[in-house]
Amino acid sequence: MKKNFIVSIVLLLILSALIVISFGIGSKFINIGEIIDIILNKQIFSSEINPINKKIILQIRLPRILFSVIAGMSLSISGLIYQTILKNPLAEPFTLGVSSGATLGAAIAIFISDYFLKYRFPIFPFAFIGGCSTLLILSIVLLKRNVSLFTLIFIGISLSYFFNAFLTLLLSMLGNRSYEVLLWMFGSFSNPPGIPVLLLYFLGFLAVFVILYLSNRKLDILYLSDELAESSGININFERNLYLALTSAITIVTVSLCGVIGFVGLIIPHLSRLLFGSKHRDLLVSSALLGAILLLVSDDLARSLLSVALDYGKEIPVGVITSLLGAPFFIYFLIKNRTVV
């Protein structure tokens, strides 16, 4: 326990350092001394504060950094709980078709904007409704007794194929505008919501995190076996539905705000188990920190690589970076730990 606590503190310090560094990364580089002066609103490392750099840090990069950190925490925690509840090491926040429903909703919003309204309609409400529709269908299925975990997973996969069929149809009808949907499907933090929305987003995540943390013993037992859970007096159906609903809810909000970002919810829980063992008390904290670090670093790369190498102001979808970083690691992990699947 002492070792896990120390490692968690180290991860927290790394995340804090990366947040400060991230303020300086982008199409315009800002040195750390000036960043600290702007954040503290004091002239410690520089003779005067550049008003343009202050605007860049506080109005552009601060919301984006907070956005990536909260999204990383949300997707990682969701992935951990999905793997625990579904007892499937390959489960992730998008296993049950939530992302496909949200993506279809986003495509519908763009389609309506193009063909009916002739002005840009906000994507978030439609993506949110699409994700919630998937969750509603799954909830109806879960209300029936004796639904096995494998059945639930297959229903989720079937829903993904169903939504993707309609998505393909809409993409073919959108023509040039289909690029906007494709870009959204790889995720981006380039258009973060305002600070009030981010605060609500964080409070929602925090509420889910606290509920899960207080239930860490139940999660430990559920991960071991249903028989042990029943003998311990745990209402398996209620607990499973509750945890899936909570994590699916924050996944839907995350996907609706930033698009689909793969691999975060898949690899981070495995990395957490590798470093911290099997106790969910430690796994919840470590997964949140590692997920925040991964998405923060990925977003730093996404918004700086093209600006440095090719064109000022261009950036890569963050989902491309997470996939490029995550795929080799996960392949190595599977080869190294063959017992995981």
Describe the structure.
It is a single chain. The protein has 15 helices and no strands. With 341 residues, it is mainly α. It has one domain: Orthogonal Bundle (ABC transporter involved in vitamin B12 uptake, BtuC). Helix 1 packs parallel to helix 13 (280-302) and helix 8 packs antiparallel against helix 11 (236-258). The longest helix has 35 residues, at 51-85. The relative contact order is 0.15. The model has no long low-confidence stretch (mean pLDDT 86).
Write a short abstract of this structure:
By secondary structure, this protein is mostly helical.
- Main CATH class: Mainly Alpha
What is the C-alpha radius of gyration, as a whole number of Å?
21 Å
**Largest beta-sheet characterization:** none
Number of domains: 1
- What ranges have pLDDT less than 50 throughout 5 or more consecutive residues? none
Strand content: under 5%
Fraction in helix: over 70%
The global form is: globular
Order of helices and strands: HHHHHHHHHHHHHHH
What is the distance, rounded to the nearest whole angstrom, between the alpha carbons of the first and last residues?
A: 27 Å
